[in-house]
Amino acid sequence: MDIYSWVKYLHIISVIAWMAGLFYLPRLFVYHVTAEIGSDKSETFKVMERRLMKAIMNPAMISSWIFGLWTAYELDVFTDFWFLMKLSLVLILSGFHGLLAAHLKQFAQDNNKKSEKYYRIINELPTLLMLGIVYYVIFKP
Known about the structure:
The chain is mainly alpha-helical. It has helices at 3-33, 40-75, 81-108, 116-122, 125-139. Helix content is 83%, strand content 0%.
């Protein structure tokens, strides 16, 4: 197989891992909100959230960017409208990742100020962004 196929393969695998984390972490926050501060349940959520972010989400986001930009380079699409739109949505997705990291820090410090409803609502944002990203990649308008 050629290098491009391997790079594209690694990009897709990285994106799947990253999206899994972006879907799961806000769901953990939904349940963490209901745990009493200092309880075993709360401390267990802290460990789960930290490990998800550090061991899966951060490496997956970084590798998604590396292999995605490499793929774009191989295809020479940096000036294509569809790619610029996809890139814009991925930047927003990366910002969402940063927002989740900030919330994780607040939970770790027992300083969460957001409600269960808030986390349920933001849990939908990665889905909407994913729909747009996949649209631009498949249809290339």
